[in-house]
Design brief:
Helix 1 runs parallel beside helix 9, helix 2 crosses helix 3 and helix 3 runs parallel beside helix 4. By secondary structure, the chain is α/β, with parallel strands linked by helices.
Length: 271
C-alpha cells in the first residue's frame, strides 16, 4: 500500500532529474521467453506480453519528447531458434505491422515506421505488410520508430561496404573519397538514422549484442542495463535510464567547461 502511494512521487522526482532528453534511444528488448517461463506460459505468450509493453513504452517516449526509437526485435542469430517459435514471432510481427496503417495514434502523432536489417531474409508475406506500413507513414516526421528485424551489426556494416564498393565500380567516388561520413550514409539502406544517445537493455544482461555498433558504439552512447524482463519494464525504468544519460551529458559539459577554464588561464612568468 505504501509503495503504491510513494511510486508516483518517486517517478516525479526521477523525472525532474532527467534534465536532458535523448534524441535517439535504442532498446534491446530482452527477457520475453524467461518471463513466459516464470509465469508458466508458452513462449508465444511471452512475446505477446512484450509486444504489449512495447506499445506502452512508445506512449511514454512520446510523452517525454523522444523523437527516435530503435527496437532490437529479431536478430540474425534468432533464426537459429526453434522453427515454431520463429513462425510465431513472424506472425506477431505481421499482425503488428498490419495495425500500423489503421492505428489512429500513428497518424495523429506523425510516426514514421520503418525496419532496419536484411529484409531479404524475411518471409515474403511479412515483407509485404512491412512495405505497406512503411509507405503509409513515409511522409511523417513527428516521431521515428525503427524496428530491427533480421538485424546484425556486423552484417549491416558488411552490406554497407558492398554498397560503397558498387559506387566505386560505378565511378560515383574514388577509394580516397571513402570517409566515415560516406559509410554512415550507406548504413541501413540510407535511412538517415541519427546517432544513438542511449542504449537500454532489459533482462539483466550486460552486453549490447552487436546492436547498432556504428551509430551507438562509434558515437559512445550511454548504456543502461536493468533487471526487469521486457514485459515487466516500467516507466520508472525508462526514466532511470534517461537519468543516466542526463548525468553523463552534464558530466561531459562539466569536463568541457573545466578544460576551457584551464586553457584560458593566464600565463605566468617563471621565477
Amino acid at each position: 500500500m505504501i509503495r503504491e502511494l510513494l511510486s508516483p512521487l518517486y517517478e516525479r522526482i526521477v523525472r525532474l532529474q532527467c534534465r536532458h532528453i535523448p534524441h535517439h534511444i535504442a532498446i534491446i528488448q530482452d527477457g520475453n521467453r524467461r518471463y513466459a517461463r516464470l509465469q508458466h506460459l508458452p513462449r508465444s505468450m511471452g512475446h505477446r506480453a512484450g509486444a504489449a509493453r512495447t506499445e506502452e513504452m512508445l506512449d511514454w517516449s512520446r510523452e517525454l519528447g523522444i523523437r527516435h526509437i530503435t527496437l532490437y526485435s529479431f536478430s540474425t542469430e534468432n533464426f537459429q531458434r526453434d522453427a515454431g517459435e520463429v513462425a510465431d514471432l513472424f506472425g506477431l510481427f505481421k499482425e503488428k505491422f498490419q495495425k500500423v496503417t489503421d492505428d489512429p495514434r500513428v497518424h495523429r502523432d506523425g510516426i514514421r515506421v520503418q525496419i532496419v536489417g536484411d529484409r531479404a531474409l524475411l518471409p515474403a508475406d511479412l515483407r509485404e505488410v512491412i512495405e505497406k506500413a512503411e509507405e503509409s507513414t513515409r511522409s511523417y516526421t513527428g516521431y521515428h520508430l525503427n524496428i530491427a528485424l533480421a538485424y546484425g551489426g556486423r552484417n549491416e556494416i558488411v552490406r554497407a561496404a558492398g554498397r560503397i564498393l558498387d559506387g566505386v565500380k560505378a565511378g560515383e567516388y574514388t577509394p580516397d573519397e571513402i570517409t566515415p561520413e560516406l559509410v554512415e550514409t550507406h548504413l541501413h539502406a540510407g535511412k538517415d538514422i541519427p546517432p544513438v544517445d542511449l542504449i537500454i537493455r532489459t533482462g539483466n544482461e550486460c552486453r549490447t549484442s552487436n546492436f547498432l555498433p556504428w551509430l551507438a558504439g562509434g558515437h559512445e552512447s550511454a548504456v543502461y542495463f536493468c533487471a526487469p524482463f521486457w514485459p515487466l519494464f516500467r516507466k520508472i525504468d525508462l526514466l532511470r535510464a534517461i537519468r543516466v544519460y542526463s548525468q553523463r551529458v552534464e558530466a561531459q559539459r562539466g569536463m568541457h567547461i573545466a578544460a576551457g577554464a584551464y586553457t584560458s588561464l593566464p600565463e605566468t612568468a617563471d621565477t
